[in-house]
Amino acid sequence: MSNQFSLLREKRFLPFFVTQFLGAFNDNVFKTALITLVTFRAGQLTTLDGKTLATLLPGLFILPFFVFSATSGQLADKFDKDRVARAVKVFEIAVMCLAAWGFVAHNLPALVTALFLMGVHSTIFGPVKYAYLPQQLAQNELIGGNGLVEMGTFVAILVGQILGAWVIASSDSGHSVAVLLIAIAIIGWLASRGIPRTPAADAALRINWNPLTETFANLRFAAGNRVVWLSILGISWFWFYGFTLIGQFPHYAKDLLGGDQGVFILLLTVFSLGVGSGSLLCEKLSGGRVELGLVPFGAIGLTLFGIDLYLASPAHAEQGGTWLSVAAAHWRVLADITLIGLFGGFYIVPLYALIQTRSEKSHQSRVIAANNIMNAAFMVVSAGVTIALFKLGLTIPQLFLATALFNAVVAIYIYTLVPEFLMRFIVWILIHTVYRLDTCGLNNVPDEGPAVVVCNHVSFVDALVITAACPRPIRFVMDHQIFRTPILSFVFRTNRCIPIASAKEDPALLEKAYQDIAAALADGDLVGIFPEGRITDTGELYPFKNGIRRIVERTPVPVVPMALRGLWGSFFSRKDGPAMSRPLRRGLFSRIELIAGPALAAAAASPESLQGIIADLRGDWR
Known about the structure:
- The two termini are 31 Å apart.
- Helices cover 65% and strands 6% of the residues.
- The chain is of the alpha/beta class and 622 residues long.
């Protein structure tokens, strides 16, 4: 069983997971029950047009995200997150009591007020939801934890919408939905009481109660970190894409597939299950680390299957049928929607984890609040763009096609601005197609602070393999000729590798390399070196050179020995001739290993001692 599911047995995760699940669940039971009521029985509540109300109500729920997200981020940074979570659940009980009375008394103002207040509830809980995880989970648990949360959220949305529509349709009195809403809120509050203490990130923070100025302050702060800001834009784009898609499901199901409400629920179900499955698979595909390579992979899927959804859609409206007959006739449509959700999970989970790990701890909740503001803005823009494209004459399938194509444009733009995403994708593809990588002892790599990673040099992709396996970015020192290897040079440059030459070849480059190494260690980075100074052409270790001694004498930091096993004889090694001359020499998915030993103090990290340790780690398997 995947490690992420073991989190569901732990007090630091399970109460929080249940709390956030029930919050999203209650939101959607209430929203769907209310929208169903005004759509089909508006006469019981008001003389206003039901279609108009059904269009306006979702916007009313989103409005608090614009107004109160910035304040909510401050609250989550200033106070213990467990206390904020429990206060939010008490607030939810009060709001659900108001909503219950509105349903029983058929009082529209009470229901509309409750809907707005539930938007406030979700707005306040949002920064707590994502800032809680990095405080309670280890870094190698973040992907799994975020995957579970995303899966739980989409399942809660799905089941909540189905239950909300069913419970309001099955009773005219409103008593059933009233009891259900209050019961869910109370159970959520009970679950929140089990959330462990999660200290404030900045208890001395002075709250700015002006939502307008604080919103701009939050956005400016988030924009100050380029990678975090572009990740926020990437997540917001996914909500634009998803909101565009889901918003058309009712009409797509009715007007093109010829189905009823059951077909709409079927489309929503397969999309939600797709997102949930993709979110859960992220941990396995990323090896438990924050793997940005999954983001381009997800974006490719969003575009390809969005295009195929257009191609698979019927050209004209079809005769009505049950959800089962529609599923049989349009299995390709269902497959495309499922895969869009799946690749959407691959896309957003690493981005959420990246925001959690790259943003400043003291401002983490406020950065999440900025993300929520942008998400809400992109959903509103999605509605406006959809209306504009329909006025231009586009059909629903053409809208899906336009969104899929624009997704490719957005992805290319982001990857041009931050090449790290594309670099990680290349590394991820290498490790998941050419090789099957096993690791051991990587907990010896310090979670933070400077250190030197030392490894044997077997092939041209050694640095990429280590980069793919290690939980932290590493700045590798490598021969300037390897640094300029076509195609791979893009990866090396993006990863801020440090080219080096011998004193005989280029003494100026050699001296600059040592200066860059010292600067990187002073900045708290990991630096990786191959002390043999060359790729082996015999499979055996060459004598370690004296560069490691010079590095740690200038900057005394821990040294982590590593050994690569299984790369000798692969396409990128020099066995039996030049490297990269015999494609698929060992076939696809050949097994390789990266073994790390305990860190050595700088004084003990001589070339001779490190060579002996790495020889032992490598063993007989080359």
